[in-house]
Amino acid sequence: MGHLNNHVVDLLATELRYSLENVQDAITQLEVSQLPVFRDSIKEINGVCAMAGVASLELLTREAVAATDAALGEQIPLAKLSPALAKAFGIAPRLLEYLIDTRQDNPCVLLPVIASLRALRQLPPVYEHHLIPDVTWPRLNQQGFTDALVSNRQHDLKRLVNLYQFGLLDLVRDSNRGKAWRILHRVAQRMQSHAPTPLEQNYWRAVEMTLTGFQAGRLRLRLDRIRLLAAVEKQLRILTIDDERRPRNPYPEGLWRSFICLLGLISPNDEKAKALYADLQIPTLPFTEQDVIAIQRRILSEPQENTAQIFSEIATVLAETRKIIDDAHRDDASAQDEDFRDQLHTAFDRLSQLWDLLGFSGLARRFRQPASRLLSNRGNGRLPPEMLVEFIDTILQAECALIDFDDKTPSRKDAEAWERRPLNEILQANFLQSAKLAVVGEIRAHLAEIKEMIDTVVAGHAGKDLLPAFEATFDIISGSLRLIDMQRPAELAERCLSFIRGMLTNPADPPSMDNYWEVFADSIACLEYYLDTSAFGNAANESSLDTANECLQALGV
Questions:
Q1: CA-CA-CA-CA torsion for 355, 357, 359, 360, nearest 10 degrees?
Q2: pLDDT: is 215 or 535 the higher one?
Q3: How far apart are CA 262 and CA 272, in angstroms?
Q4: Residue 554: which of 156, 240, 237 has the closest Cα?
Q5: Final residue in a domain of this structure, among 420, 455, 474
Q6: 31-77, pLDDT tens digit by residue?
Q7: Are residues 388 and 463 in the same domain?
Q8: Which residues are within 8 A (CB) of 39 and not within 5 positions of it... i.e. 6 or more apart?
Q9: How far apart are CA 374 and CA 380, in angstroms?
Q10: In the listed set 420, 437, 457, which residue is the last one of a domain according to the structure?
Q11: Per-residue pLDDT tens for 182-195?
Q12: What's phi and psi for 2, nearest 5 deg?
């Protein structure tokens, strides 16, 4: 973002490099009595960086000085300050190399580190729009907002708050994110349809477009950005308050600017998006999200692969390995050739590496051992049957881990606890879980059919003639739910059918609300959410069923 001249580069390579090395050394043996001297050292570096125009190091040292001041004031214990400073200044050597090599500076690459330092003082993160100079940000005209949204849609808003909370919770715990994004999108779209003024519609359109950027992987979902999405949940709750206690400004300028800035970091990818960017007056920024990510990978030593990608590769390699063994079993000669052994060795070696990355040291070892044996047994003829059985058991255990941790980010503690369980217990539990997942998968598919049929009815392309199909599909759904002992969801599904039956047999007498199909769709979304969270092994939480019940009660069933 900022170009560094020769004088600044020389300063970075000499004086500042030496000063930062001294700071790193001091952190390793930092004591309370040394804090004043340590603070003065960082403040001196901060002053040099400010004069030289090195914005990234100036920001880092400024926050470090503030954190040290808080420790001197006994607001932060040294036990928390030292590791945070060690992590922050641990990037200094790589940051210096980047600045010297490229002669380019961008303080936005340090935002995750800055957020950690500010969290020590219980302060909100710094966001990109705080650090990008010379940009004219579109402003919100607060006088363009009304109370009509609240007064007309208060009950709807409360249900949308519940839906948003379901999606946000899954994002926070990194579970079932695909469903979470769909729920958050649904809420943003509904808020656009409810918004009584163009300004409010634009606001929720910006939120929806930002969610699309996160879901598509064009924007990185960092912890500080999850705070922005959490702020939207607070905003929705404020909008449900229909009395004098509600703040006068439910649309804070800072939140709006954060979303506009995030959209500015990614370019529109089609003509419709370009038109929306023009409507929202999204500015052109001097760098993109991908520019920032590339630098962060270099200076923060971030892994190139995330958990979802690793799990996906494991699933692919496991499937390929099973096929190799099955093909060899059918073709007796293949089980004896060297190519078969080499393929197995390559697969097991890769699986060992992947499970190690996820913290499953036991599974990694179970794949590493046969990989080693295959290498040492080259040229020894046919593999003994008991060895193949061992291989298949190891693959089966790995497949169980995929089921248990699907769409989650297990900690090393989670991995160790899972690996301590006896293999027979794991297999038995996962056979039952696999059967339940199969039933839940069928129910999901039938709920998708229901949504398609509803779209057909709402569009006016069908009516009472679709009732037998609705009845047959809902009968399968409720029966399947009872089969896996989900009694309450089954009852809700039966009430959904009652609503559909009433709408199709007596269309002239709809519910009093004008958006009854949207409310009904919310009840289906809540059922889907409950099924997904149950399928992913989370503890049973019936709050989504409570919301579905509220929707159906509002519809009179």
A1: 10
A2: 215
A3: 18
A4: 156
A5: 420
A6: 888 899 999 999 999 999 998 888 999 999 999 999 999 999 989 99
A7: no
A8: 65, 68, 69, 72
A9: 10
A10: 420
A11: 899 999 998 988 88
A12: -120, 135
One-letter identity of residue 23: V
> Residue 468: which H helix or E strand, with range?
helix 467-483
Which H or E element spans position 104? strand 104-105
523's enclosing H/E stretch is helix 516-535
Nearest residue to 414 (alpha-carbon basis) of 220, 173, 227: 173
How many CB atoms are located within 10 Å of the residue 14 CB? 10
Are 411 and 430 members of one domain?
Answer: no
Residue type, 57: L
Position 360 scores a pLDDT of 86
- Please enumerate in sequence order all residues whose Cβ is within 8 A of that of 403, keeping only pairs 6 or more positions apart, or say none: 430, 433, 434, 437
Q: What is the DSSP string of 63-85?
A: HHHHHHHHHHTTSS-HHHHHHHH
Q: Distance between CA 484 and CA 547 in Å, rounded? A: 22
Q: Which two tokens stand for residue 142?
A: 């607060």
Q: Which two tokens stand for residue 527?
A: 């059922």
In sequence order, which ranges of 141-267 are alpha helices (DSSP H)? 148-172, 177-194, 198-215, 223-239, 253-264
Alpha-carbon torsion, ordered 491, 494, 498, 499, to 10 deg: 80
Question: Is 219 within 8 Å of 291 (Cβ atoms)?
Answer: no
The pTM (predicted TM-score) of the whole model is: 0.72
Is residue 83 located within the same domain as residue 203? no
Residue range 72-98, pLDDT digits in tens: 998 999 999 999 999 989 888 888 888
Q: What is the pLDDT of residues 211-230, one digit of tens each?
A: 999 988 899 998 889 999 99
Residue 104, strand partner residues: 3
Residue 76, CA distances (Å) to 58, 60, 72, 217, 321 in order: 22, 18, 8, 36, 52
CATH of the domain at 365: 1.20.120
Instruction: Determine the distance from the C-alpha atom of residue 552 to the mean position of all C-alpha atoms in its chain, rounded to a whole number.
Output: 30
Give the 3-state secondary structure of residue 383: coil
Q: What whole-number distance in Å separates Cα of residue 451 and Cα of residue 167?
A: 19
| Distance (Å, whole) CA 251 – CA 236 | 10
| Residue (of 468, 447, 467) closest to 521 by Cα position | 447
If you average pLDDT over residues 443-465, what whole number do you get? 85
Q: Measured between alpha carbons, how far is 261 from 135 in angstroms, rounded to an integer?
A: 10
**CA angle at 191 for the pair 189 and 192, rounded to the nearest 5°:** 65
Q: Cβ distance 171 to 177 under 8 Å?
A: yes
Domain, as residue range, for 234: 142-284
Clarify whether residues 155 and 117 are in a common domain.
no
Instruction: Give me the helix-helix angle, 307-330 and 385-404, nearest 10°.
Output: 150
Mean pLDDT of 338-361: 85
Using an 8 Å Cβ cutoff, are 504 and 466 in contact? yes
Nearest to 194 by CA among 147, 234, 228: 147
**Using DSSP, how many helices (H) and how many strands (E) does the chain show?**
25, 2
Instruction: In whole angstroms, give the CA distance from residue 478 to residue 492.
Output: 8
Residues 278 and 336 in one domain: no
Percentage of residues in the chain having pLDDT higher than 90: 23
- Count of other CB atoms within 10 angstroms of residue 148: 13
